[in-house]
Amino acid sequence: MKEIHVPSETGKSMFFLFFIIFLSCCNLSFSELSSNQTSTMIELSRFLNVSDWNLPGSERNPCLWKGVLCSRPDNGSVISLSLSRFDLTNSSFLPLVCQIQTLESLDVSSNSLSSVPDGFMTNCETLVGLKQLNFSMNQVSSFPRFRNFSKLEVLDFSYNRLSGNIGDYGFDGLVQLKSLNLNFNNLSGSVPTNLAKRVETLEVSYNSLSGSIPEGIEDYQELKLIDLSNNQLNGSIPSSLGKLSKLESLLLSNNHLSGSIPESLPNIQTLRRFAANRNRFTGEIPSKITRHLVSLDLSYNSLTGLIPSELLSQANLVSVDLSFNQLDGWIPQSISPSLVRLRLGSNKLTGSLPSASFKSLRNLTYLEMDNNSLIGTIPSELASCSNLTLLNLATNQFTGILSHAIGNLSTTLQVIKLQQNKLTGEIPDDIRQLSNLLILNISRNSLSGSIPPSISQLANLSNMNLQGNDLSGAIPDKIRDLNSLIELQLGENKLSGRIPVMPPKLQISLNLSYNLFGGPIPTTLSQLERLEVLDLSNNKFSGEIPDFLTGLISLTQLILSNNQLTGKVPSFIRNVSISVSGNPGITEDDEVLIQRMPSQKSKLIVVVKYVAIGVCSLVAVIITVIVLKLSRRFKGVNNMQVDHDEEGSTVLPEVIRGKLLTSNASHKSNINFTKAVEAVAHPEHALFQTIFWSYYRVVMPSGSSYLIKKLNTRDRLFQQASSVQLELELEMLGKLHHANVMVPLAYVLYSEGCLLFYDYAHTRTLYDVLHNNPSDVVDWTSRYSIAVGIAQGICYLHGSKSSGRDPILLPDLSSKKIMLKSLTEPLVGDIELFKVIDHSKSNSSLSAVAGTIGYIPPEYAYTMRVTMAGNVYSFGVILLELLTGRPAVCEGRELAKWVQSHPSQPEQLNSILDIRVSKTSTVATKQMLRALSVALACINISPGARPKMKNVLRMLTRL
Ligand SMILES: *[C@@H]1O[C@H](CO)[C@@H](O)[C@H](O)[C@H]1NC(C)=O
Ligand SMILES: *[C@@H]1O[C@H](CO)[C@@H](O)[C@H](O)[C@H]1NC(C)=O
Ligand SMILES: *[C@@H]1O[C@H](CO)[C@@H](O)[C@H](O)[C@H]1NC(C)=O
Ligand SMILES: *[C@@H]1O[C@H](CO)[C@@H](O)[C@H](O)[C@H]1NC(C)=O
Description:
Distance between the termini: 63 Å
Number of domains: 3
CATH superfamily of the largest domain: Ribonuclease Inhibitor
CATH topology of the largest domain: Leucine-rich repeat, LRR (right-handed beta-alpha superhelix)
Helix content: 10-25%
CATH class of the largest domain: Alpha Beta
Largest sheet: 23 strands, mixed
Number of helices: 22
Bound molecules: 2-acetamido-2-deoxy-beta-D-glucopyranose
Shape: globular
CATH architecture of the largest domain: Alpha-Beta Horseshoe
Number of strands: 47
Structural class: alpha/beta
Strand content: 15-25%
């Protein structure tokens, strides 16, 4: 039933023959490396055991080895050696490298070296030609002393584990040094001033440097790039910096710098990029600041006064970000046509938009002026911005008719945010022309008329928010054509009539609350198998609550309050929070959220029911469809073309590759890959499902149980093409080891997807323990160790600056992703998600992967990127769950917003805490209040103001 197309044997051997001929030609056409260097290289190859180097016959010419570069044209000597990503763990080979007298460049980046041997420092300092040394992305913890190395120009120790005071580091021998990169280490002390005066680039970002920027920096007249961002520098920028006449980039982001921006900076004629965002700068912006700049970022400071009138008009300006300051006055009239990105949001700007200047902004791509006090109409000249992708004018006082505002906007637009203004009129039919639109938010205006059917032509739309207007009439039937829509907010309007079939992929929310809908709850809602929140409250729905709602497998929240429903609330086998208050005909205690525990009995009843109505056959059809779909998705695996035969749904899929990741031998004898693939062929046996995974318990022939996660590849965001890449990533994850991280033990790639294996012991989630067990209150001590454990796990995943790997981010961090080994030992789960998502695609529909509502940081809406700061936010929400005992979304409101809306006096905050826990002791209350302030810091609306995870951990452990 399966055909595998691989090159035929003859084809392969022909190719091989040509390859050999090609190699020998190369050998003939160049002269040889000196025997001295050849023997050094061969010795090195024995040391390193690189498979590419040890091919039979290759010893004849090391110049052809991967990573080796020889002098041209004679190939007489090795001049450059790149051993990047060679899996090196032992640095004892390094002194040998120094025997290559002609070496000019050595790159050992991206390995796991933990030291630089003395032998290297003494042997290599005599290499007269050595100009470049790259040790970045290793685990070196001790900076070697450079006594001589008098020709070295470029030194890169970024992404290592260097610590201690940078002032104690010896740079004295590096008299020719031009470039020093120590980014992403753990250095303390102040900005070094003991470098060679000819230094051109100085990079020490992401360390813990403190103190102020030294006045003496003006002695480094050759400096072109200074990157001091992400440290703890304080004081003000010395105005002598303005004397650095060759400076091109000055990056000071994310420090504690204060004072005003020096007037001398615009004097630097070469300065193109200036970033001083996320500091504590005050005062006014110097009038000529952008005179030579291409990019200016002063966001998240406390700058005041007007935006200087010529700031935006400079000819080369491409990007300006002044958002989150306290700037007032009008937006300058003259704007440079070169601008690509302009962000002025969250200031105190007034007046109307400089309409005339929009006419020429052909390159403008991102325009954000939200959260100001701008007035007047949205200028029709915006139509000339033919490259506009994001338009955010939300939360201002704009007036006028919506159709005039968006009638002619560029079809390149992907995000439109005009919510919270005073726009009137109807939603124009023309909106269909915005065919690239992903996010449309025009909520909380005064729009009237009905929703135009043409809106259904926005094929890429993922989020639509029309809430809080005066829209009337029926929802157009064609709305079901919105095949990418995952969120539909239509609440607080005057919509009425029949509810049409809804878009099939709705996930985040379907909100029809506060409208004029009536009649029975439509059965077509039963098709929304991904829907998490359904809000039909405050309408006139009548009849019984239909049973099919229990079959919505992704539902977490069902809000039916204030309708005219009757009868009983059906039994949900999964945990769904249900709100039915204000329905006089409902027989059940209302008011409270009804939390349902899975019980064997109700499961049985439901199963019987299902059988009775013959759903079995339906399930079989669905499985067949899914199987066929998946097989198509994964056909790229190992270049095999897997053709399923038509009635092949009973034939078991073939294991392409199963691999043990753990070194624990007991798993090796227990895990049976074929057995696992067999077991997950029955989706109805899943313990539970999330949007990305199905979870199974599989008992192996040996009797031991494993928790198996099966990737639900129904989303196009998953990496489909590169199984090799996926395997590499999984193997990397398998190497992780931390008591609070749930690391896969093994994986299987098979024709229908991918399975991951875990210890079965951990199947209770934090969510279950906190919110599904009202009688069994977890005490503060346990909650505290859970919080600390999760923080430790996330810290580990984010990696210290020097863990030598990229940080592992958690796109979907929530209390449902925290598994509990015991009441004090949490495990951070779902760490694979970031690796299996196809990031090239996640750009356009990140909202589909940005996790669970309630935990999604606000900035994801516009940055569309999963970040560490975003993870900190989600952790903050989990901490709030532990402190308040409330779920992340509670009564239709996000917990984070609810907490933020409380006044910050102690007695008010006290009332937020889970009283069942806080009342037990005053010590507990005190600690909880301190933990609450940590949580509040984590959910800070501005990502830069949130503490890093390691600081969160530090704060928590000091409670
Ligand atoms: C070969 O290398 C040794 C030491 O490694 C050195 O003493 C000798 O002079 C070299 N010979 C040539 C021809 O470079
Ligand atoms: C070199 O690597 C091969 C496999 O890549 C391994 O079999 C062999 O034992 C290694 N040799 C040494 C000396 O480490
Ligand atoms: C707009 O962008 C294009 C392409 O990057 C560039 O060539 C052009 O010079 C820009 N226009 C202006 C006015 O800067
Ligand atoms: C913007 O759009 C115009 C066409 O209107 C195009 O010529 C120009 O290159 C675009 N600029 C960028 C930066 O893409």
